[in-house]
User: What shape does this take?
Amino acid sequence: MTIWNLHLLNARHQLTRVLSDLRATARQAVALVSAHADLPDFDLVIRSGTDIIPEWGMGGHAPAPGVIEVTLNPDRFDPVPLTRTLVHEMHHLIRWDGPGYGKSLGDALVSEGLAGHFTLQVLGGKPDPWDATTPSAGLARRAMNEWSRLGYDHAEWFFGKGKIRKWSGYGLGHRLIAEHLAQNEGADAVTLAHARADSFREAMRRLAKADGEPEETPEPATPATDR
Assistant: This one.
């Protein structure tokens, strides 16, 4: 049985009016995921704050093995997006105990793509808005060329903090996993949770080819940096 601890950062009482809902939603998310996969032990930290996805009134990430952090606006609390956020982050938890989130662009595309498909596997429905984002023409080709780059700009690829359309990294990762699944019958986001990113490189080549022939230029060496 998974051991998990819920840490509600509420010394200033911002979360008081939604405490019972937070506890109930967290318990439900753990139960839903546990029906599909073995969850590692973890700590879940929930706080009030402004570092959120505006469209959902919350945001989450799994910054290290065994840790999920969620920031939300209590005035906009909704158990549905919280459940989807938690399920997404729980796949990151599982992957952290395998190859980890990773430090290259390819690693990030695979980790986010798998988490998005896991959310669909557990909860059904439509892809989350970021996963449904259509990457601009040429982006798959660029991703193929920069696949192993460690110094990639995560905020630009995934959050629109640059020239790449907002959420494009999520949309491309989602399509990458869909392409891989189409060629590997019986695989899913659970069986692939610990698969290394290079296992998906051929699927990215197919996406890049459909996006136009990739440039035949060597990938520049870059120093290892944290995401």
